[in-house]
Automatic annotation (TrEMBL):
Top-level taxonomic group: Bacteria
GO molecular function: transferase activity
Protein name: CoA transferase
The entry's keywords: Transferase
Organism taxonomic ancestry: Bacteria, Pseudomonadati, Pseudomonadota, Alphaproteobacteria, Acetobacterales
Source organism: Siccirubricoccus deserti
Amino acid sequence: MSATPQGSPATLPLAGLKVLELGHYIAAPFATRLLADLGAEVIKVEPPEGDPVRGWGSQVDGHAVWFSVHGRNKLSVTLDLKSADGKAKLRRLAARADALVENFRPGQLERYGLGPADLHQVNPRLVIARISGYGQDGPYRDKPAFGAIGEAMGGLRHLTASPGQTEHPPPRCGVSISDDLAGMYAAMGLVAACWQVKGDPAAKGRVIDVDLVGSVFSLMEGMLPEYGLFGWVRQPQGAAIKTAAPTNTYPCADGKWLCIAGNSDLIFRRLMAAIGRPELADEPRFANNAARCENVAELDAAIAAWTRTKTGAEAESILDAAEVPCSRLYDMRDCAEDPHFRARGLVLPVQDPLLGEVLHPAAPFRFDGVSAREMVRWTGPAAGAHNDHVFLELLKEPAE
């Protein structure tokens, strides 16, 4: 199967940028999905059997539902990089590209004869973003890793536990957050390097090294300097946070949970009036945030006593009217049906030739003059769907 896709609208900021993806599973494909949403031409190079992630999750007639989003706006070609022909085609693709994103284990591309030194021989200005578990050097370089390992070693999973909970392990957040973070950082680094190369006719291509562990570790706010200066190790916070109060998640009568952030003095006063406890706002022990943090257990108990008498929607409506920041904990049904998500175009009904009509999340950025729908130009294709378009039309190879 082959297809000729529509081009990127000139109004998209990365229209004209040519990117190769040697990605599998999550991190590199997530990086290139962002770049493709922004208008870059992304050629996803898959093994003949396709990206292994095509076998993940729910399926329709053998096609992975997730891949509709994961592979959207990308050209899919299949190559056997172990073969001489596959390597030769990859080099020709690299010669016309501005950038390449890969997430093999360190050293794998070099073993194929396709490492940065090899690729820079055919394209000295090629930007290469490399994503791995632990990075391209260091003592853990050759260890295998998936997203859960990035969360664990980067410091995030330690924080997701409930204080004092030892019976159950700290939960993961439910998605492969370290892969997504690494993909975002790789995309950011790639665009920065391409900007530098574009601005200097004599510039050489750069190699960008991003790893899952370091990507998660970068989010640990002030925890490293606190440890270095004072020896402090931040402990699990549960649903609250030690530096602000009241900020927590409270049970409601219908089994829903309501997240409430009432930690500024003015908002705290409005919150106490809304829950029928205005006298607490005048108590000296709740006079400011520092005092509230010292007495947070009493505050949380008072708020929870109120939320338990309301459904999640009722409590949220009352606090919205009082201008207190709050939200029920949304599941995907809530997201898909919420009028704000729909009005902002965050939920897009899209026709997928492999699946029928599916819902896609919109790109996470908006540009004037470009609709959310224009940024989803096509859905994730079948493996090798664009072989003829890429090899015959773009590379001008003779038909076999």
